[in-house]
Amino acid sequence: MEFIATRKETQILNPAKDLALRSIPSEIRVDPLTGRTARICHFMKLQWQKPDFDQLVAGTEKTCPFCPDKVLKITPLFPREILPEGRLIDEDRILFPNIAPYDTLGAVATMGDRHYIPMTEISVERIVRSFNLAFDFFRRVEAVDHPEAVYHLINWNYMPPAGSSLIHPHLQVFSTASAPNLMRQELDAAKGYLEANQSNYWEDLVAHEKADRERYLGAIGRTHWMSAYAPMGVAGDVLAVVSGARSTLELTDQDLRDLADGLTRLMAGYDRMGIYSFNMNFFTGAKDDAAARFHLLFSPRTFFNQALGATDVGALRNLFNETICMAFPEEIKTMLEPDFDLL
Ligand SMILES: [Zn+2]
User: Fold this and answer.
1) The pTM is what?
2) Does residue 29 form part of some domain?
3) Residue 77 lies in a domain
4) Overall domain count for the chain
């Protein structure tokens, strides 16, 4: 396992200082598993302005399809052969088909009846129960031997900067035989690593990061939290690897609680930087894939320019899939460390 970085240096002449020479560093990092590159550059203090939330949220509940007065009237139902009762309901959490599906078996799960929940008020309990509702769906599609019941995935887009078109907290829940790009590349590369080294990449990564401690935040149960070496987010990514678990349905109730616990710690940490939005994806192997380990990636999202609504994804990322992170992952680890001090 190699942690490769190429350091670069740009020289410019500064007109404000009598054309004095200024040197600006940057770095290109290579993800040790996939070879994907990530740039560490555009260095700035990781501190953003939050919007006026009252103004942002005001009135959006009136047309929100997930609010309690509308959700059971508006949202669709699954056909009987998949889910005889149409939707899964656990108190105020409701799972129903995604009206804009990107695969055969796509669902959306509301995380309760509350329309707007500030990031720091999302509790461990709420995340656990919402994950559990998604897991009920995964078990149901497994039980009917659905051909798409291979990879069970939860994606979470929290708030509009992360791509959510609704304020109301919800999860994207889907089961698919078609692994998404980056997950497929990881699965293939992990298989190659296992064959070449007779060792599991993810377990080796945890052992390396834990010993090195430059990016390792800590363990909650068998979930290991670390700042990603080659992050995709502008404020870094945090990776949680569940040691010993190959796939989503191998996660225990305790694992789900530990993952939710870690996520709330990350939300508290990034909130201090003025971040109020994130993406979170599950990455899983197929059942019995010895090379895979379940992991999730938490990636904070923000604007390059809040007033203009300039997204943090530009041409470099969108068309080259080359990413920019504005601080060293090792510094981001230091900033998040206070939230993991109980471990
Ligand atoms: Zn709502």
Assistant:
1) 0.96
2) no
3) yes
4) 1
Q: What is the pLDDT of residues 68-114, one digit of tens each?
A: 999 999 999 999 999 999 999 999 999 999 999 999 999 999 999 99
State in Å: Cα 7 to ligand 1 middle: 47
**Tens-digit pLDDT profile for residues 208-244:** 999 999 999 999 999 999 999 999 999 999 999 999 9
- Residues of the chain with confidence (pLDDT) below 70: 342-343
| In 146-276, alpha helices (H) | 181-197, 201-212, 253-272
Contact criterion met (CB below 8 Å) for 118 and 53: yes
Question: Is 69 contained in some domain?
Answer: yes
Phi, psi dihedral angles at 7 (to 5 degrees): -90, 140
The alpha carbon of 2 is separated from its chain's Cα centroid by a whole number of angstroms, namely 24
| Cα 133 to middle of ligand 1, angstroms | 18
Neighbours of 250 (CB within 10 A): 16
Closest among 309, 311, 258, 259 to 280, alpha carbons compared:
259
- Locate tokens 């007033």: which residue? 307
Ligand 1 center–CA 260 separation, angstroms: 22
* CA 48 – ligand 1 centroid, Å: 26
CATH code assigned at 263: 3.30.428.10
155 within some domain: yes
Q: 173: which strand partners?
A: 107, 154
315: containing domain: 34-340
Q: 3-class DSSP state for residue 243?
A: coil
135 C-alpha to center of ligand 1: Å?
Answer: 23
Ligand 1 center–CA 229 separation, angstroms: 36
